[in-house]
Design a protein that fits this description.
- By secondary structure, this protein is α+β, with helices and mostly antiparallel strands.
- The chain has 2 domains: 148 residues, 2,3-Dihydroxybiphenyl 1,2-Dioxygenase, domain 1 (Roll); 197 residues, 2,3-Dihydroxybiphenyl 1,2-Dioxygenase, domain 1.
- Helices cover 27% and strands 36% of the residues.
- The protein contains 11 helices and 18 strands.
- A 9-stranded mixed β-sheet has the order 1-12-13-14-11-15-18-17-16, with helices on both faces. It has a 9-stranded mixed β-sheet with strand order 7-8-9-6-2-5-4-3-10.
- Strand 3 and strand 4 form a beta hairpin.
Length: 374
């Protein structure tokens, strides 16, 4: 069953936490950055705020920066076939390459991580331009994913080398901040990566879910949620568990062809307004059967929202000691059944919707069956 972290964290050797303030950005390697930016601009309402490419003197890649409140996405594609970016897209299709952490001191964060056994990908690099001083450094994590330390307290722009542009998105979407980012890893690798986050970053196990918590009649998974003390960074790590048929985690691994980011959860202050606008802009969500809502009040108690509206939109609800949360999951946002997004509104609850796991997994399995992958 799901376990709170206090006991688990207490068993791990105390490690001083790297001072991470929160998520800075997520960078995707994509086949066509222009088209991907259009999708997130029109579909998810992001402002397009920066561009880097041939017109800025960059000969090897094209890249766009998108922003909505405190969420930053970077979409990067290669202009040549024989590059790391092109190979990443060929192997994984569109997917997350870098998860950026905003830190007080990028050099110290990088050096501390290496001293604790992390593998460096990019040593600290400081760039001075008209916007100020920007420092970054990167380390390897699961699969081909990296974590990039970003120090930008004295920097006014988005990223160095990008031309500022001002293409406004849909202000009605109301997405606020990245809540958590989930990684899928191969069977028996979850413990290794949980220990990695404890040892390298000083994170703790916020929650643990075993196969009894996250299962259906067909498939199951196990998961550990790694987090910093302030919980501004939460990184669940999933691995497949044995089941009668192929789990959603194994389907991801088969098509992504490596460990990688499964989904990005972003918060909103009004999920009904946000999901209504997302649906109107063409974003597809997993479907939820009407039967889920027939017993909803009995399961979660009184809530502020109209259940008929939640049912029409397909929004899930779960309650825990501190309150309740509302959440919904998109279908995959690319051709392969890999990366998707979660929209979440927290009304006192700090968990991950444990009470919705069965309904969510059954929704995913219906989509798997349509793809012939269950």
């Amino acid at each position: 069953m799901a376990k709170e972290t206090v006991g688990l964290a207490a068993q791990a050797p105390a490690t001083e936490e790297i001072a991470i303030e929160g998520f800075d950005h997520v960078e995707f390697y994509v086949g066509n950055a222009l088209q991907a930016s259009y999708y997130f601009h029109k579909g998810f309402g992001f402002d397009v705020v920066g561009y880097r490419g041939l017109e800025t003197g960059e000969r090897d890649l094209s890249s766009y920066v998108l922003k909505q409140k405190n969420i930053q996405l970077v979409l990067t594609s290669s202009l040549h076939p024989d590059t790391e970016i092109a190979r990443h897209v060929s192997n994984h299709a569109d997917g997350v390459k870098s998860i950026g952490f905003r830190v007080l001191d990028a050099r110290k964060s990088y050096e501390t991580a290496l001293s604790r056994g992390a593998v460096g990908i990019a040593p600290p690099c400081q760039i001075e331009d008209e916007n100020g001083s920007f420092v970054s450094a990167a380390i390897r994590t699961y699969g081909d994913t990296v974590h990039t330390f970003i120090e930008r307290h004295n920097y006014k722009g988005s990223f160095p080398g990008y031309k500022a542009i001002d293409k406004k998105g849909n202000a009605q979407l109301g997405l606020l901040v990245i809540d958590h980012i989930v990684g899928n890893v191969e069977n028996a690798a979850m413990e290794y990566w949980a220990e990695f986050y404890q040892r390298v970053f000083g994170f703790h196990v916020l929650q643990y879910f075993d196969a009894g918590d996250i299962s259906t009649q067909y498939s199951a998974l196990i998961s550990k949620v790694m987090a910093n003390k302030s919980r501004t960074v939460k990184m669940p790590i999933n691995e497949p568990a044995e089941g009668a048929r192929k789990s959603q985690i194994q389907e991801y691994l088969d098509y992504y062809r490596a460990d990688g980011v499964q989904h990005i959860a972003v918060t909103t202050g009004d999920i009904i307004k946000t999901v209504s606008a997302l649906r109107a802009s063409g974003i597809d969500f997993l479907s939820v059967p009407r039967s889920y809502y027939e017993a909803l009040t009995e399961r979660v108690g009184k809530i502020d929202e109209d259940i008929d509206v939640l049912s029409r939109l397909g929004i899930l609800v779960d309650r825990e000691a501190g309150g309740y949360l509302l959440q919904i999951f998109t279908k995959p946002v690319q051709d392969r059944p890999t990366l998707f997004f979660e929209i979440i509104q927290r009304k006192g609850a700090q968990g991950f919707g444990k009470g919705n796991f069965k309904a969510l997994f059954e929704s995913i399995e219906r989509e798997q069956a349509l793809r012939g992958n269950l």
